[in-house]
Amino acid sequence: TWVIGTALFIFASLANFAAFAFAPAALLASLEATQFASNILFGRFVLGSYVSRRMYAGTLCVCSCTVAVVLSFAFAETEEIEYGIDEIIVCFTSTKYVLFICFMVVFAVGLNKCTIYLRRLNQASKTEGFAKTNQDWRTNVEPITYACFSAIFGTQAVIFSKCLALLLKTGGAFSHWLIYVMLVGWLIFVYVWLTRMNDA
User: From first to last of its 200 residues, what are the pLDDT tens digits of the chain?
Assistant: First the structure.
């Protein structure tokens, strides 16, 4: 079952990648939040898993924000800037972006270390039979650090997808080294993102 689910997820990601050529990235990225609703429905009706009220409330909040984003694009007069190869290179080599990436790398390493540490503590607590109240905060924080680490890679995958879509719209993109850098980067980010989601 998980193979079918992963295959469908990869297919949807590729379709989403193709859609980046036709709509603003801010709109398409927010629409991906609907996966929370599909996860809730799939878990409840297909897998028969228990879905808490907190999960329903969180999903409703996310979907409401997604609707708000879509409506803001529908009623706002926005014009998307079309970047070429030179403009994309300038953006990726700017000091602000380099500093941002450095910060995100440090943040991602910290999140991963924190997740591993909390997981070990939680496993030790279960093994040694500690009181539930002593480990509640750890069991709540571990999924947050795990999801934040995954989100960093998912966000970069979206950025690289949009850049790839823009590059493919320009003539002679395959003769430039940038498209291959973007493709390799996108594959790496998507691989890590999918692996983390599958492990979850």
Answer: 567 766 776 777 667 666 666 666 666 666 666 677 777 887 788 878 888 888 888 888 888 887 887 777 667 666 666 778 888 899 899 999 999 999 999 999 999 999 999 888 888 777 766 555 555 777 788 888 988 898 888 888 888 888 888 887 777 778 888 889 988 998 898 888 878 877 76
Say if 98 falls within a structural domain.
yes
Measured CA to CA, the distance from residue 10 to residue 195 in angstroms comes to 11
pTM, whole model, 2 decimals?
0.69
- Can you tell me which residue has the tokens 């990235």? 25
Report the greatest alpha carbon distance in the chain: 64
Number of domains in the chain: 1
Asked whether residue 130 is assigned to any structural domain, the reply reads yes
Is 147 a domain residue?
yes
Smallest CA-to-CA distance from 29 within 38, 20, 39, 37 is with: 20
